[in-house]
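Quick one before lunch.
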Amino acid sequence: MQQKISSDFKLGIIGGGQLGKMLVQAASKWDLKTYILDSDENCSAATLCTKFIKGSFRTYEDVYQFAQQVDLVTFEIEHVNIEALKRLKEEGKSIHPDPNALTIIQDKGLQKQFYASHHLPTAKFQLYQSKAAIIAAIEEKKIIFPFVQKSRKEGYDGRGVIVINSEKEIEKIFDTPSIVEETIAIEKELAVIVAKNTKNEISSFSVVEMGFNSEANLVEELICPAEISKQIEEEAIALSKKVIEKLDMVGILAVELFLTKSGKLLINEVAPRPHNSGHHTIESAFTSQFEQHLRAILGFPLGSTKIIMPAIMLNLLGEPNYTGNAIYKGFEESIAIEGVYVHIYGKTTTKPYRKMGHVTIIDETIEKAKAKATIIKTQLKIIA
Ligand SMILES: Nc1ncnc2c1ncn2[C@@H]1O[C@H](COP(=O)(O)OP(=O)(O)O)[C@@H](O)[C@H]1O
Ligand SMILES: [Mg+2]
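Model of the adenosine-5'-diphosphate complex:
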């Protein structure tokens, strides 16, 4: 068998954003050769990878040709041209996570049907083809306000998700195949990153709690471990492990969950790739989510997911009123604090709420980490 580390073995990563960059950083530790496909030669991962190949992950031909140059294909974004991946799989190319699992995940409608068919708890939903069909269902009282509409494809970071509160807002409904979901009274939003390797071993990181910036609809702050009961923690991990097992995919899977006001856990959605809610693992866990993904897809033993220290992760979003070349105000003051790790993604231009980097803050207790987070939030700003 070909030795994968420090050899000619080539790992192909589709997408060169920050997740690709951090995957390359993890791969570099073992001297793995990394090839990146991205349409932007200035993407975050471009200067770090072994070879950068310009092309779109959405285009059949670009994905297909890229895969010819590598020994194993993975991705850091779920919107990859699925026909190309299916064809490559038929031709015997190694691809993880599996294109069948990705097919389900790419379409939120299929994802919801998958949960329902496996009796995995999720918010009640119905599928609609168009705005007209939703309006007709409202008139027939089949849909009641308030409800959440999500486009089946291409949504991310809150784009493609809308809450319709009343009759007055029906003009806002998207005219696209979508799911209509009951609005959940959410107590906490949680995330669990699970991994399955080629030997079908499954492991889970600790449950994290996500705090949203309601204006940008982006995760602003994350707390690990989540402040929840032991019972909810165990239930969240068990559910997440069941999802990766039923999806029968290899790699890491981020499972987003709602803990409802009535204490129930519901699966919201999943992502078959490294996830914002796992960035803290780089410094706060024995194994990072990026290394765990590599271990899983390369057929290596999974690493320990034990927490070294509690962590807070802050996304560094572009300040609302600035667009242009990024300036990292307060950088030196921030890295001067013990247990503060600043990650800069290397995107040259900042825009309002653009994810420009993140900060992980670790300390002996969550309270101590939170106190440092308060300082970082006021002093570290991305402006232009
Ligand atoms: N059924 C729901 N009830 C209440 N809030 C919801 C519901 N679905 C989604 N949300 C809110 O919208 C956010 C984005 O929805 P999500 O399905 O995760 O889409 P995205 O792909 O944009 O992450 C969630 O994190 C949550 O805050
Ligand atoms: Mg989400």
